[in-house]
Amino acid sequence: MEGSWKVFIMAAAAAAAGGVPSQQCFLLSVTGQVESARLAGADQLYCRYQLHGGPDWDIVTGLEEGISQVSRPSQDARQLLVWNLPVEVSYKATNPYGWPQLIVSCYGPDLFGNDVIRGYGVSHLPTAAGAHRVTLPLFVPESTSQLQKLVSWFTGRRPELADASSLATGDGRDVMRVRSQGYVTCSFQVVTKDLQRLGYDNGRRAPAGAAGGDLQPAGGGDGRPG
Amino acid sequence: MVQRQPERRLQGELRQTRPAMKSVSWNHRAAVTQKSIDESESMLDQIRSRRGRRREAGSQDESLSRSVQHDDTSEPDETLTFRPSDSVRADVTDDVTDAAGGGEGGPSSPAGRLGKPDRGGGGDSPRAPPPLAPRRLSAAGQETFRSQLKKRLSLAEIKGHGRAARRSRAQPRTSRFDTLREGGTSRAYEDYMRATAAGRTGPSSVQAYDFFCRIWEDPPSERRAATAPATPREAGEEASGAAESLSLSELLGGEQLEPVTRHVAPMILSRKAQLAREADIYFTPSPIPIPPEERLPAGGQARDPAEDGIYVPRRPHLAGRNLHKLENRLLHSSDRHVRQLVDFRLQSEETWSWFGEDGQLLCLPDPLLSRPRHRDYRDVSEDALTDYLPASMEAPRPADPEPTVSAADQPQQLQLHVHLVAVRLTEHPLFSKEHRAAAGLEQLHREYTALVDDDTVNRLTQRLWAVRRARDGVLSAALQLPSADHGDHSGDRADHSGDHGDHTGDGAEQVQRRRIDDYTTSIQRLREQRDAAAAQQRRLCRSILRRWRELKVLREDQGFSSTPLRLAVRELPSDSGQETELWQRELRAELEELRTEHDRSKQHLDAEYSQQLSEWRDRRRQLGPDSDQLGPRPQPPAEFDPQQVLADIEARATGNRRPPGEPKLAFDLLDTHPITATADCPKPEQQRRQAVSRCQLSVRTLIGGREVSHTRPQPLSQQLVSELHQQLAVRLRAAPEALQLEVCEEGTRRSTRTLAKLRLPSPASHVTERTALPEWTAFSAAGSGPAARGRLQAALYWGVDEETGSVLAPPADPTAEGAAAAELAAPDPNDPADASMTANMPDPCAAAEAGDRPAPLRPGCDGFLTGAPDPADSARCRLLRLRDAGVPEFRHVTMAPLRDQQVPQQLFTAYQKRLEAQSAAGAGAEEAGGDGGESARRSVLQYQLRIKEMVARRLRAAQKHKRLEDMVREDEVPDIGTIGSVFGSLLSVRRPLNPPRKQKQSRPLVDLQGQELQLLCHVVRAFNVPVRRDTDAVRTDYSRPAPAAQATVAQSSLLPKVSVRPFMELTFQRQTVRSNVAQGPNPTWNQDLKLPVTLPPQGVADLHSLDDVIHLSLQDEMLVDLLDDDRLQDTNVHQRIERRWLAELTVPFSTLYINGRVEGTFRLNTPPLLIGYDCDVTARGTLFHLTESLPTGQTGTYVTVFITLEPPVNVPPTVQEHLESMETEKLLAHCESWTRAFRRDYPGRRVRCTVLDVTGRSALVCRYIRPLRPPDALLAACSNEEDQALLIARFVSLIPNVSDVNFFSGMYDLWTTCQEFLDMQAGDEEEHAILLCNFFLYLGKRAYLVLGSGIPEGLTAYVLRLVQYRLQSDPVLARPGSGIREGLTAYVLTDEATNRWLWNPCTGQRSSAAESYSSLLSVGCLINAENVWANTQVYAQPSCISFDVNLVGDWRPLFTARQPAPAEMASVQAETLRYSVTDTVRVQADAERLERRLRDHLQNWRQRTNWTPWNRPCSDALRRMLPLLERSTFTPAISGAQLADEQTRLLANIHATYKVCGVPLNVPQHSQEAMVEALFALGVHRNDSREAEFALAVHMEPYPSNIVAVWVYVAALTRRR
């Protein structure tokens, strides 16, 4: 009995994942960059990004994760740590629920040369087509006590998230204490397809001439402010 | 526009002349050619010389311009042209006036000139070419002009003008220029030219035209005289101007004269002169307000229309300063035009002025709304800010979705504040006479003050007069009506609410009449009101004085005073003359009104009278003059008697109002009267004062009948006032209608007496702390108590949320709000701004209007059209909802299809089926398992599912709460112990050759995301492996070893001469990996076997739900020679590898998951019979050294393995929740402290006092122990007591063992009752042990439940007869605490006279408590129905401890004499167990079905290799064998040898033709799936031989209560050659 439904689910899931016809899903294509970070006191920094989508989202092309080179702050007043780490991903989805989120985690060596976490940041990918700049505030988990803090400073094992992708869900946020760190700036160029044909309104009207497919061009003027 | 021109033009000139110089000096130079530079230089010279002249002429200029202005008001454009010019202008004026006469009648009338405004003039655009030519010059005029001017002008210039002139459409005007005197003309022209050349101040075409064509009027003679002295000087200049002009034309030399290039020096004035000039021209209004008298028409008096009830629209806001300036300008400006406008207005219509009746500047109503109309988002909750649009597929969205605030959905959060300020008594038994009098006086004074403050009398008087005035206006308009066809303005404005005078003729007349009637009625009403108010005021006045006199008398009489009240009477100044006048006026007006009223009613009365009279006369005629019924003759209506009426009015007025001359009084109530000291008072008063000082007041607050607060009692002052000053805030769910307050008097003996009750209405929803004012509310004692009256001062208001700033008030009721606002602002029904408010009022007109308004948006209205399908019905929506709810079928669905059509229906059918089954099971349970068929089995499953779901729900709720450790990885703070061990390890001796094992740090589950989880099995060695008995020879006698067979093997040199070639195979989730082949019965592999773990669909988090089983099977690899031809033996090798299943170890994945690893030497599950193999160790005598330590009589195959997960995973801890309990708090606390103390003393020993049942309630473990009657069938089966016990143990062990983790998919440790256990047919060791213990208790044995730790019984979940065997020699096991994590287990101890047995409830096997190799490693506690005993002995191994619980030193009981057990300890178990009857027929059918199914599976597995022939005779023989095997499990009499013999006998025929390789499997009926998996793990199907035949037999031994022992015998047969 139990086994039978399990088999069913597997089969259904496989059918659903593989066999969604192209007319029955919408596409979200995002190209962009994790451009730079402003993080006081960071001498060297590299970042990891990962994308986290809901159950009805599937990556068509592109990488779900990426890691950047180590960057040093710019030699001016801005002290920017520039990576320009490209993010290119195309999703197909049947449900806007679980709209993908970008999770950025920054690491850098501390005083003793240990690689420690410097900040986590999370943001939804923009929903509207066009060019967007998003600034993610960064934060790190706080030590549970002052002693812990001291010890972790010495040992170079600062508290870090067991799983960064848990940031994409709301679970367990209430038990965490975090400290703000800095900002990461990302830019996105977003193209969506078939969103409106399937009845979703993401704030953009289809051009009058476009019947059926509403391929929305990038670089629109209505980019959300970051 | 025209009228303003002079001023503007002058400004323009003044402004522009100054910068002109600069631009000439450098700016222009850069831009033009050399020629033009020269030109401009010459011009500069010209300008310089000109400037000198202008200075001289300046003073004259001004005076002249003024005179011109005054004279020529009718022709403003003249001034316009010449006034701004320079000195020449005076002469021009002089000169041209000679010709003024002719201009008047011509076509160029003033109107025509006025019609051409001066656009080009004034230098609006400096670069624009100046308007040049006079347009209306005739040819003759041109000629004359030329002849006059040719000496002075260059030819080119004249040409230019001539061209322009030719273009013009002008009519000829003769003899204009003849009249111009030469000098004057030339000067005027020069002036004109200069202006032209400047390029900025050129005259307009009109000016130019006027200059040439105008017939100038004769100036007055005195003007001429005034200007005459200037003439000689001007004449002198004339020549030089002409010379310049000529030289300029010569300089230019060319044909054209470009006026642009000529510049004129700006007019520079000293600042003082400039200011003087400006002061003359400009009017600077003063910002000082004008007194109102000036603003009103002479003798007028300001009256406020608003006071008269007339709608006054809101005035736009204007800063006072600006307003005053504007008023000043309007009234005082000397500016002719403004003045004119004012005068015009004043003259044309008397009633019209800039100012209204109230003396305010008239203005339109403020067009701005007082409130912003945009939605205030502060009140909107956060989530409402995002504009939520419900998903719609086909239906179009509503045109304008309005975000709705769903305030109604949220539970109201109200916070009512009550501020109790003071209580003041006005009547009380403690009041003295004086107090009473004072209170009366106070009351009167309060009323009086209220009246005076309100100024009711005055207000009504004012209003009365206003209405009178309005009526008069209408009356006067009515008189004019026949002649005038326009509405009366004053009347209209006075009565704004009325119609706007659109009516004409009769309609208008009617309206007028109606209006007059209205006014008359309202005057009458107002008069009465005024009289009533005045009378009351007068009455109060008198009463106050009288009462004050009484009070004074009283004080004198009693000789002391106890109240500080004193009345001060002031006389207010009054102007008696004015008063008399007013008085008279009032009387007259009233008289007139009465007369009018009388007149009006007279007609009616007359008519009535005449009718009555005629009736009377008729009656008299009929009845006769002397009849009694005739009645009196009707009296004619009284005539109006002015004298009489006036006298009446006067009398009434004198009675009601203060007649003129009477002093005007004002009363002040002071608290300055000295109070006599208590000592000086007489005794009764002293007592009274004491009583007062003892008295205390408090206030109780009740909301909805419930007391919410009782203030602290506050002492009563001697003035009978109690200052409370207490605040109270109440959080409410719903707004109370009213608040009940009770004023209580606290007596001396702590007795509280309610003085009075009062109700305060709930405050309006907008009232907050800032707006609330404490108000006095009067109360009076109700009921039989002593009379007490008083007033309570309290403020009620709603709290404000500090975070959001929103008022925690109930949503405002629109009607209530309207009413409240109506009270607040006294809305004007005529004011359009109040329309919303008035709309809410019950008004028929408003109701009619409401029909036009759009219906408000329904709150529940979403984007779906009514025709569209309900979204809840759509399959997709259902799918998403079920997924969200975590229904197992849908929990792992990804890419949920967008359209309903694509949602796979199978998903729902499966789910539906389950639901149906569940409901059917619910119904079936009520039938109490009637038919006992398939439905019984199903109902068991459904019951399980129900329990599972219930627990899972609870668990999910608990798991939502993540802990910090789940989220954040952080090093633990090292404590002293760890630091010490770190240093200790540094100091310790290094022994590189004895490496200790390092514990791997396990990681939380979530951390495994994206990594592959692997099952790692390290197979070390096995020993005592069965060896082949029957090798490859054709044999007839199987019972003895055959030397011939060995010879056969020896024939083939390739086949090693070994007895067995064993290997280990790991099977998990249908994946298989095997080790190398080792040789002999004691193989050593030392090999890692790895298999990937296919995670459940939800990922690692769901790992605990994985119910797969790890099969580790020991198999024998056989090489079978396939060569048919013996001759090829020497040259060819043709062999097939066959495998023979020998033994198996099964470990449920949950066991591995919980324990982290399974490690040790385990006895493999060997079947009771192995065809062709010899399991008898002693028979062989070639044992490995390890086996020597085996106790005698122990047989079996052992394997040493280490199984773990790679990477290691963290096990979520057991959910510890403090749930409700059936025990008392005291008992629970005792249990906890007892447990804690024991755990502290003996860590690692298992002890439980309270456990959770399936409903989540905790109960004492003792409640689970209760003698229960085993099934009768079992009792009847054996007569022998020992056999009975064994049979019962067998019965209990047959109930499937499912770990709680697996079953409840979580870390709950739940104990089910025996009945639940039997119904569910699943449970872990504890349930088995309890049931067994209870059965034994029934049998009269002394049985205890033993909790302890051992090698987890989870290992035996599917294979019954596995016995964990602990080897003394194993170094890991021998050292306590060396790292093996023992599973928690439960045993049953029976304490009999002969022996103490430890029963393993999951295997049904017993061992002596004294035996040293029990798989129970440590005993934690013993439990029976009365008590719990914790093991406090040094050792925990059962073989080392004493089981006498009475020994205080060895066992620590939970309940002692000091802490006795609860008096009645009701058992959670039912008194008797219900056993359903097992249907043997059904079991038989089930067996057949299972057999069929297993066959099908086997065939399927073999499908890719071969077809599967079934050997039926063999199957039958095996089937006959199985019942015997079952019986042997609980009958010690049947030995292994007997079984073997029996089998040999049964299979004798088959052995003759086939080699048989078979295994009997015994599995408690858990599920057929498990059976299939077990069969797969056997690997019998992997026989690739073409000739292989198979035999399969299933036997189900029915036990009571649907418990079935399942036996499967499977064999592969190979035909002998």
TrEMBL record, chain B:
Region (Disordered): 1-178, 222-246, 286-307, 482-515, 596-617, 622-641
Classification via Gene3D superfamilies: C2 domain (2.60.40.150)
Pfam families noted in UniProt: CC2D2AN-C2, CEP76_C, CEPT76_peptidase, DUF5523
SUPFAM superfamilies: C2 domain (Calcium/lipid-binding domain, CaLB) (SSF49562)
Basic residues composition-biased segments: 161-170
Any one biological process term the GO annotation gives: protein localization to ciliary transition zone
Gene Ontology CC: ciliary transition zone
Segments forming domain C2: 992-1162
Protein name, as recorded: Coiled-coil and C2 domain-containing protein 2A
Encoding gene, per UniProt annotation: CC2D2A_1
